[in-house]
Design brief:
single chain; alpha/beta; Spore Coat Polysaccharide Biosynthesis Protein SpsA, Chain A; 10-stranded mixed beta sheet; two-stranded antiparallel ribbon; globular
Length: about 375
């Protein structure tokens, strides 16, 4: 089916979802990703939004152009940060649903469509996602782990936000209604400073997703992520207190305003945000190890206990991240061919496909 282009918009007449791919100085990963998608009918179009160096941006554009005969794909360049880049890309999407996919991750198209169909039937849910597995190509035996996502389905918006703060997981790579995700990114862009610290924008996006509706994690494999030095962040924000305080207050004021629009009392909203995210105001804090309140420690114990009694969890090791578990054969039911193709291309090209590699043949 031919692509439909109207002015500066990107979309397609029949499909209902667009895959938005933010990229930055990683043409080899983009080349690997598009090679993977060429092997399977996706049923949706792609929009690559780039913000890299001019010379690498030219290579990104060339990669996209080389796949236009097999994929419905467009390229746009925005010289800005990640949040603004995604917002500007979302403004170009005309399909009612959208999904973000990082250039080094691989979404499973059939799973994406299952999420779309779920949202079509469930208007009270703001997002839907399946199981996410991550692969560490540099670790022995190509070990894979499945990230533990948690459906958040309480009727109360403030309770959903509390649950998200307790069991936080990155949720902006789920399937969303386009208008909703665009507004979330616009709010986040106006209330956080990406140049100062990238953590506040992730906090804002996760809270907005929970505030605006229920969150569903469906029981099937959805994507395979690659963990490597360029995307594994153990970064700590080390800043002077006045700047950290100002950034936090800006974040809190915006989120309080969003809570008020959702019918939540201002004092209740402020108390919740300070309790859940107030540690950000400290002069120095570790991104991966914020101070834990007694409530957070209690909930962590509950999750650890659940992991002990859950069937098949005997492989857990002391100290292993409670938000990850080992891959099971049951995770791959119904998706074995696409999983095998994703695993193979990551194993064969852990750092992406270099430019001097000829276009690969279809392997699945």
């Amino acid at each position: 089916m031919e692509a439909t282009h109207t002015g500066s918009t990107i979309g397609r007449a029949a499909p209902e979802i667009t895959c938005l791919i933010p990229t930055h100085n990683r043409p080899d990963f983009l080349r690997r990703m598009l090679q993977f998608y060429s092997q399977f009918p996706t049923g949706f179009s792609f929009l690559v939004v780039d913000s890299g160096k001019p010379e690498l941006a030219a290579e990104h554009r060339a990669v996209v152009d080389s796949w236009k005969s097999k994929l419905e794909i467009e390229y746009r360049y925005f010289d800005t940060n990640f949040v603004d880049k995604c917002a500007r890309g979302l403004e170009l999407v005309t399909t009612p649903y959208v999904v973000l996919c990082a250039h080094d991750d691989l979404l499973f198209p059939e799973a994406v469509w299952k999420c779309v169909h779920f949202l079509e039937q469930e208007p009270s849910y703001t997002s839907a996602i399946g199981r996410t597995a991550e692969m560490h190509p540099n670790r022995p035996r190509w070990a894979c782990r499945v990230l533990r996502g948690y459906s958040i389905e309480d009727d109360s918006p403030i309770e959903r936000c509390r649950q998200m703060s307790r069991i936080w997981f990155n949720n902006f790579y789920a399937v969303y209604r386009t208008a909703n995700l665009l507004d979330m990114f616009l709010v986040t862009a106006a209330s956080t400073d990406y140049a100062f610290d990238f953590n506040l924008h992730e906090m804002m996006l996760s809270q907005l997703s929970a505030l605006r509706g229920r969150i569903k994690v469906l029981p099937f494999m959805y994507q395979l992520q690659t963990r490597h030095g360029a995307n594994t962040s153990a970064t700590s924000r080390k800043g002077v207190r006045p700047q950290a305080e100002w950034q936090y207050l800006r974040f809190r004021d915006c989120l309080v305003d969003q809570f008020i629009h959702a019918g939540i009392d201002q004092l209740q909203a402020e108390q919740f945000i300070d309790q859940a995210y107030g540690y950000y105001r400290a002069e120095t804090w570790e991104t991966r190890n914020p101070p834990k309140s007694a409530t957070r420690l209690f909930h962590r114990c509950l999750h650890l206990l659940h992991g002990v009694v859950e069937k098949g969890i005997g492989l857990w090791k002391p100290g292993f991240n409670r938000h990850r578990r080992f891959l099971r054969s049951s995770d791959l039911v119904g998706c074995q061919p696409i999983w095998d193709a994703a695993e193979k291309i990551i194993i064969d090209y852990p750092h992406g496909i270099p430019a001097n590699r000829p276009q690969l043949q279809k392997v699945a």
